[in-house]
Amino acid sequence: MMTTFPPGLILVLGAFAVPFLNPGVRKALLLALPLAVLVLIWGVPDGPVLTVRYLDYELVMLQGTRLGRLFATIFAIMTFVGSLFAFNQRRVFELAAAQLYAGSAICVAMAGDLITVFVFWELMAVGSTVVVWSARTTTAYRASLRYMMVHFFGGVVLMVGIVAHVADTGSIAFVAMQPETLGTWLILIGFLINAGAPPLSAWLPDAYPEASWSGAVFLSAFTTKTAVYVLIVGFPGAEILIWVGVYMIFYGIIYALLENDMRRILAYSIINQVGFMVCGIGIGTELAINGAASHAFAHIIYKALLLMSAGSVLYSTGKRKCTDLGGLFQSMPLTTVCGIIGALAISSFPMTSGFISKSMISSAAADQHMAFVWFMLTAASAGVFLHAGIKFPWFVFFQKDSGLRPPDPPWNMRAAMVIFAGLCIGLGVWPEPLYAILPFPVDYVPYTAGHVIQMLQLLLFAGLAFFLLLPFMKRTMTLSLDFDWLYRRLLPLVVQLFLATFGPVDRAVRTIFVGSVKNVIARVFRYAGPNGPWARTAQAGSMVYWAVSLLVVYLVLYLA
Amino acid sequence: MNTQDRKTSELHWLVRPATIRLLWRGGLPILAVLTLADLLMTAHPYFGIDGSFGFYSWYGLLTCAVMVFFAKGLRFLLKRGDEYYGDDRE
After folding, report:
1. Which of A95, A512, B63, B78 is the residue whose CA sits 20 to 30 A from A531?
2. Neighbours of A375 (CB within 10 A)
3. Which residues of B touch A477 (CB under 8 A)?
4. Which residues in chain A are contacts of B42 at CB distance < 8 A?
5. How far apart are CA A285 and CA A361, in angstroms?
6. A479 in contact with B at a CB cutoff of 8 Å?
7. Which H/E stretch holds residue A164?
8. For residue A446, what are the CA distances in angstroms to A291, A442, B68?
9. DSSP run (H or E) holding A497
10. Quick check: helix, strand or coil at residue A60?
11. CA A473 – CA A475 distance, rounded (Å)
12. Cβ–Cβ of A472/B72 closer than 8 Å?
């Protein structure tokens, strides 16, 4: 069967039906749609499939590529398992928005031109904003507004970039570029904003942890990974991405180490992981691109798993801060085990999905003799274990006993976690199916004795560092300042200062102006008002008297 | 059974002091064996130093310590109370 229309559109359109269905039908639809989409994705043949003429341009709404299919596949799997996890979510708008969001991401991954990419890119921003907002707290509402502001700003930058690029080249085709012209630079910046790159990265840890227990799971998957996808297509081998990636990697680690909110720790670690991918895209060799793509695939699964285990804790306890949690392993064994599996996978432990994907990026750096990058990536691998691999499970499920004894979550949430935990290990022990669908042929053997021993040394000694330095990592009720301080504190302050300074001046100027206008009106009123001399009514007699007088004067002058 | 013992026996077996001692005693030899395994390997270093004995062990430990202390230092600059942004965050 050949697919000739964009499979993602099924989810986009399905989203509008979701809020109006009865719960039973809705659940069935939420599971059936992503599966149908998954089948259709694999029916899309290579090359442009659906083209539509719009104004002077030929839009390629659907295009089959190996890379696009890989990303669309994991997006569809994520939607299926995420929907299963979210069954008990009573806020149906969140479920609908998540479908819209996921469908748009799939449409981006299968689009062949910049305009189509842009349209679905913006639709993703709308869907994800509604997902954040659906938590229905004041905090989430405000965070969703800030989130929307950053993404629409990114959208404007991207749009201007596309317009400039099309003006330069006359083509809307979405193909590999180099950041050389104004247009391509702006496109790159637009893409990077969604990847969580500096300086605007704070939008991610600001908004994602404010979503509901299920919303954050969806959010972790699509926006940043779609950005990784468009960066692979648009800017493979752009050197600046190496440095942006390295910055993101360490930014994520350091901020996660300082963080107290369990889901914000995981949010920072999204930036950290996307940093590995961005760095791989910057290296740009076939091995590096395969590494970035497979790491995105593996990352969506283990990050969703981690956020599901955190979401289950939030669902059962209503608490989200490490300082309030601890000791939960006693009553939530399944959630604990699944959380640990996700934590091992994100740390690239041998026999997990992270091991078979991330190591390709480091190997690519070594193959290119990028010593500094390689040493940074290796240190960061240890750092991932430190900030996410141990810190998250330790502070949530172990450390001190919080006294909380919540049960594991309902069956559907447990099932979703088990599926993804199984995939984390499955991909780790049997990577071949994933390797077979990567963009380039894979000639990489992850399991050599040397590689396994090295990775275990690195990770277990990072673990030792964690427990030795535990006294330095005491959780406190604090938050860490970030770039968002500029628009959450400085900007309001500037506005207040502006109002405080120019308010009185403005008032004074207006008082003077209004005063003088009133003055003029009063004068006019005095002369031309009902009692003014100019408006006084004269009697007909006096008019005759004056007319006669004038005539007499005229006569005298004439005769004289 | 004195109070201390009763308290300990009420604890989950995984968090009893004896278990934790056992974990340390079992864990440290594992780390040592892993590092010694380098002697059996033929190193294929990319840059030289990464092929030296126990490189990944000390590099993992050292870089993690650096990251923790760097974060700790940065904390003085960046940390603010939970309520810094007002009722913005719950």
Report:
1. A512
2. 18
3. 81-82
4. 450
5. 10
6. yes
7. helix A138-169
8. 11, 11, 29
9. helix A491-528
10. strand
11. 6
12. yes
With a CB cutoff of 8 Å and minimum separation 6, the contacts of B66 are A379
Complex confidence, ipTM: 0.87
The amino acid that residue A376 corresponds to is: M
Phi/psi-derived region of residue B86, left when phi > 0, alpha when psi is between -120 and 50, beta in every other case: left
Give one DSSP letter per residue of A6-22, joined into a string.
Answer: -THHHHHHHHHHGGGS-
CA A320 to the chain's CA centroid: 21
Q: Please, are residues A262 and A285 in contact by the beta-carbon 8 Å criterion?
A: no
Residue A59: strand, helix, or coil:
strand
Whether the CB-CB separation of A248 and A198 falls below 8 Å is answered with yes
Which pLDDT belongs to residue B1? Answer: 43
Strand partners, A62: A50
Amino acid at residue number A253: I
CA distance between the termini of chain A:
117
Q: What's the CA gap between A235 and A179, in Å, rounded?
A: 8
Tokens read off for A102: 């996921």
If we measure between CA atoms, which residue out of A137, A189, A186, A144 comes closest to residue A165? A186
Distance, CA of A472 to CA of A493 (rounded, Å): 34
Q: Look at B63 and A456 and tell me if their CB atoms are within 8 Å.
A: no
Listed in sequence order, the residues at least 6 apart from B5 whose beta carbon sits closer than 8 Å to its beta carbon are none
What pLDDT is attached to residue B90?
Answer: 42
pLDDT digits (tens, 9 = 90+) for A211-239: 999 999 999 999 999 999 999 999 999 99
How far lies A485's CA from each of A252, A481, A482, A489, A491, in Å? 17, 6, 6, 5, 8
Residue B27, CA distances (Å) to A36, A439, A553, B24, B31 in order: 48, 41, 128, 5, 6
Angle among Cα A67, A72, A73 to the nearest 5 degrees reads 100
Residue labelled with tokens 């780790």: A428
A309-329 pLDDT, tens per residue?
Answer: 999 999 999 999 988 998 899
Give first-to-last CA distance, chain B, whole Å.
Answer: 45
**Cβ–Cβ gap A480/B44 under 8 Å:** no
Length of chain B: 90
- Chain centre to alpha carbon of residue A238: 22
For the four alpha carbons of A275, A276, A282 and A286, in that order, the dihedral sign comes to negative
Alpha helices in A318-448 (DSSP H): 333-346, 353-367, 371-384, 391-397, 411-429, 432-436
Amino acid at A48: P
Instruction: Supply A355's token pair.
Output: 């091991």
CA–chain centroid gap for A431, Å, is 28
Using CB atoms and an 8 Å cut-off, which of residues 245-264 of chain A contact chain B? Answer: 250, 253-254, 257-258, 260
Q: Which two tokens stand for residue A147?
A: 């989130």
Nearest to A304 by CA among A387, A406, A214, A196: A214
Nearest chain A alpha carbon to B87 = A139
Q: Provide the pairing of β-strand A57-64 with A47-54.
A: antiparallel
> Which secondary-structure segment (H or E) carries A453?
helix A449-468
**A270 CB-side CA count, 13 A:** 37
pLDDT tens digit sequence for A268-306:
999 999 999 999 999 999 999 999 999 999 999 999 999
E strand or H helix at A559:
helix A540-559
Residue count of chain A, please give it: 560
Rounded Cα distance, A10 and A12, in Å: 5
Structure tokens at A502: 């120019």
What confidence tier does A85 reach under pLDDT thresholds 50, 70, 90?
very high
